[in-house]
Amino acid sequence: MSRNDMHPKLGEIIENIEKVMIGKRKVAELSIVALLSGGHVLLEDVPGVGKTMMVRSLAKSVGASFKRIQFTPDLLPSDVIGVSIYNPKDMEFHFRPGPIMGNIILADEINRTSPKTQSALLEGLEEGSVTIDGITRQLEKPFFVMATQNPIEYEGTYPLPEAQLDRFLLKMRMGYPEPEEEMEVLTRAQRYAPIEDLQPVITLEELRELQRDVKEIYVDETIKKYIVEIANKTRIHASVYLGASPRGSIALMKACQSYAFLHGRDFVIPDDVQYLAPFVFAHRLILKSEAKYEGITAEEVIDRVITRIPVPVQRLVR
User: Fold this and answer.
1) Domain membership flag for residue 84
2) Alpha carbon of 28 to those of 39, 156, 172, 173, 298: distances in Å?
3) Taking the model in full, what pTM does it have?
4) Is residue 278 within 8 Å of 302, Cβ to Cβ?
5) With 0-12 CB in 10 A as exposed, 13-18 as middle and 19+ as buried, what is 156?
């Protein structure tokens, strides 16, 4: 897809992000796909490649409130969702909201805290609400979490449980920049911090309208069947202990709708499914021990599954 094919408003967001993030267009596009879908993103990579800067750039580009949660081993669930504090003056409890109460949340190094605190995000990720002292509080829309984690082989990290991994629409990696891109990063950092000059290109209301429009993107029955067949094949694959869940199938369909919308189409095509399936399904698969020993990755499993399933032929009349 060329840049000319892109939705004008969404193209402006990406161009705005690229003023700060050099060579990360794919990551920016996938982040917007998740944001439009009402889903969340898990960014896994080594420190220092720009994970935090990506989230801040996205928040500034859409004029959203930005909150950051630094996950540490001693972080408590109440530090994430908030707590009711007793005020002796009026003899009442007053709710003090946690940093989860925002539009775009950076859950930084999420795998450095205990599973108990990680689970404090579960209700917010799935339901868009948090329950404190028996009272359920709705989170403001849009609500978008971009969690970062260092690879689990680093010391002091806790692997995310499967139930929480399943709540993330996409999982992706930033990767190191190319040498010429890194040279440009140095040049920009020498003069000023580009993030400080970044201005919103759309309003929150415009973003909410775009999220509503995405739901109208047409998904043909053949595409739905294609998604279900890919998901089913992951469940019976010889290298897989646990395959993609039905929630994963829904996530892939929604991501495809957003990706089509991003690229100026009002319908989903098989190429959308093939491109997005590894980002949506890979973190939902649990491989068998022997497959891990042989060095097989979840992405490779999905690629093999896709190559063995006939590409659907869509009807021309909808």
Assistant:
1) yes
2) 15, 29, 11, 11, 23
3) 0.89
4) yes
5) exposed
One domain for residues 277 and 191 = no
- Of 146-155, 225-234, 291-300, where does the model show the most confidence? 225-234
The string over 238-271, giving b where at least 16 C-beta atoms fall within 10 Å of a residue's C-beta and e elsewhere, is ebbeebbbeebbbbbbbbbbbbbbbbebebbbbe
Q: Using CB atoms within 10 A of its CB, is residue 155 exposed (0-12), middle (13-18) or buried (19+)? A: exposed
CA distance 145 to 35: 9
Q: Can you read off the two tokens belonging to residue 47?
A: 């420190």
- 3-class secondary-structure state, position 308: coil
Give the C-alpha separation, 24 to 303, whole Å.
Answer: 23
Query: Could you read off the pLDDT of 248-278 as tens digits, one per residue?
Result: 999 999 999 999 999 999 999 999 999 999 9
Is residue 78 in a domain? Answer: yes
CATH code for the domain in which residue 134 is found = 3.40.50.300
DSSP letter at 207 equals: H
| 269 plus 176 within the same structural domain | no
Mean pLDDT highest for which of 106-110, 131-135, 184-188, 306-310?
306-310
DSSP count for the chain of H helices, then E strands: 14, 11
Q: 190 is written with which tokens?
A: 């020498």
Tokens describing residue 27:
């990551």
CB atoms near residue 117 (< 10 Å): 23
Domain boundary among 208, 226, 259: 208
Could you tell me how many residues make up the chain?
A: 318
Q: Which of 148, 181, 208 is the last residue of a domain?
A: 208
Q: Give residue for tokens 């995310």.
A: 160
